[in-house]
Design brief:
This protein is an alpha/beta fold and 207 residues long. It has helices at residues 17-28, 42-52, 68-78, 93-102, 114-125, 133-139, 149-159, 164-171, 175-189, 194-204, and strands at residues 8-13, 33-39, 56-59, 83-88, 106-109, 130-131. The chain has two domains: 8-139, Response regulator (Rossmann fold); 149-204, Arc Repressor Mutant, subunit A, CATH 1.10.10.10. A six-stranded parallel sheet has the order 2-1-3-4-5-6, with helices on both faces. The longest helix is centred in the C-terminal third of the chain and has 15 residues, at 175-189. The N and C termini lie far apart (41 Å). This is Two component transcriptional regulator, LuxR family. Residues 9-125 form the Response regulatory domain. GO terms for molecular function: DNA binding. Keywords: DNA-binding, Phosphoprotein, Plasmid.
Length: 207
């Protein structure tokens, strides 16, 4: 990188402390990349993006407070100049499709080589889309799933332990409407209850 060039700024969101530190160090040694914030949850990530307006947000999918997918949606709406790169353990086409629908432009697995990770940040920052090659090929034939977006949201929250009353209050819906969404999701997945339905949907990458 020449002295006149600005480094690629990155906000890193990862809830596992050791991995977050490792990624921060790994990206930080690249001469053309600068990690401006390293945070442990989705809410902090959204604040950091608003503060620093980085070129790239690198985030996991499973994040406390705000998930990586919800984060991608919010960042696309509020800070469209920041491009989102998902770094995750979920090697499932369902998650990839949902990440792309949410506005992410990159999707890599956590076991990728460090050089591949740094290069992905560069490519994403310069407007390219970067997707794990094996997962990209598999996603063409993947089932997008039977659930609507609202059914996914309700089932995901229910699977995380929210009660019907809490869901109704959070989503500003009636408890009857929440029960209808859950009933539909359970029926579509052939499950016996909301817990089993959430487990089945998560295994498929639909949540």
């Amino acid at each position: 990188m020449s002295p006149s060039e600005k480094p690629i700024t990155v906000v890193l969101a990862e809830d596992q402390g050791i991995l977050r530190s490792s990624l921060t160090i790994m990206l930080g040694i690249e001469p053309d990349i600068k990690v401006v914030a390293s945070v442990s949850n989705g809410a902090e990530a959204l604040r950091a993006v608003g503060l620093h307006l980085p070129a790239v947000l690198v985030t996991d999918i499973e994040m406390p407070q705000v998930t990586g997918l919800d984060l991608a949606i919010r960042v696309k709406e509020l800070y469209p100049s920041t491009r989102v790169l998902i770094l995750t353990t979920f090697a499932r086409p369902g998650y990839l499709r949902r990440a792309l629908d949410a506005g992410a432009v990159g999707y890599l697995l956590k076991d990728c080589p460090s050089t591949e990770m740094a290069e992905a940040v560069r490519r994403v920052a310069h407007g390219e889309r970067v997707i794990d090659p094996g997962l990209a090929a598999e996603s063409w034939s993947a089932d997008a799933g039977p659930l609507t977006e609202r059914e996914r949201e309700v089932l995901r929250r229910a699977g995380e332990g929210e009660s019907t009353a809490e869901l109704a209050r959070t989503l500003r819906l009636t408890e009857g409407t929440i029960r209808n969404y859950l009933s539909e999701a359970i029926s579509k997945l052939g499950a016996h209850n909301r817990t089993e339905a959430a487990r089945l949907a998560r295994a498929k990458g639909w949540l």
